[in-house]
Amino acid sequence: MRTLNNKPNCKLSILNCQSFQNDYFYPVINAAIFASGEGTNAENLMTYFKNDPRIKIKLVITNRDDAGVVKRAEDHKKTVQIISKEALNNYTDQIIEFLNAEKIDLIILAGFLIMIPEKLVKAFPHKIINIHPSLLPKYGGKGMYGSNVHKAVIENKESESGITIHFVNEEYDKGEVILQAKCAVNSNETPETLAKKIHQLEYDHFPKAIEKLL
User: Fold this and answer.
1) Last-in-domain residue among 125, 140, 171
2) Mind listing the pLDDT tens digit for each residue in 133-175?
3) Do 137 and 214 reside in the same domain of the chain?
4) Residue 205 included in any domain
């Protein structure tokens, strides 16, 4: 894992890493966003960190050439790579080489609906983060995304829901938690109204969670 200058014990992924004094140099963190859908979270991150000297969103990777995130990334003048599910799983070594050649330090999953191959996870330990639309460990795992989560939350008469931002490991939604944020689930809640609450939590808290890693 890359470490900051002259501080070998202060790693980029450690949340409680103390700040340097002004006379130390902060290397820019190169990030790649992986997204499968409309890309609203990805665009929110691109806008939020546009002028931040600590981090550069260098790439946007998607598995769908018709995903809304493609145009959003192009509007922000970001390099876009289309990598299919088959390519991700069958050419993982080449993808790792590509990410290393681009000097990617951090991978941000913003609505990426494909499980990250174990080999890629091991190549970027504690450098891949994901956002999930529930309070993990509840409503995580395969098939638990988007409206599927919100419907399950309402059907089980939960009084609250929320988001979890976490590091990615080899299991679905089982990595170390970075941040959670909650919202109330009302008695007349619908999957659509709950989705709006969850999206707002995502827009408010995803950038702040990433800032904790810088």
Assistant:
1) 125
2) 999 999 999 889 889 999 999 999 999 999 999 999 999 899 9
3) yes
4) yes
Do 197 and 116 fall into the same domain?
A: no
Distance of alpha carbon 72 from alpha carbon 57, whole angstroms: 13
Adjacent-strand bridge partners of 29? 55
User: Residue 14's closest CA among 23, 3, 6, 30?
Assistant: 3
User: Which residues of the chain are under the pLDDT cut of 70?
Assistant: 1-26
Q: Which of 97, 125, 153 is the last residue of a domain?
A: 125
> Which structural domain range is residue 141 located in?
132-163+179-214
For residues 33 and 41, give the distance between their C-alpha atoms in angstroms, rounded to a whole number: 10
The whole-number pLDDT of residue 18 equals 41
Q: CA 49 to CA 104: how far, in whole Å? A: 16
- Residue 197: Cβ-neighbour burial (10 angstroms; 0-12, 13-18, 19+): buried
Radius of gyration of the chain (CA): 17
Annotated catalytic residues are 132
> pTM of the entire structure?
0.85
CA-closest candidate to residue 2, choices 24, 22, 30: 30
Task: Answer whether residue 115 is part of any domain.
Answer: yes
CATH for 75? 3.40.50.170
* pLDDT for 214: 87
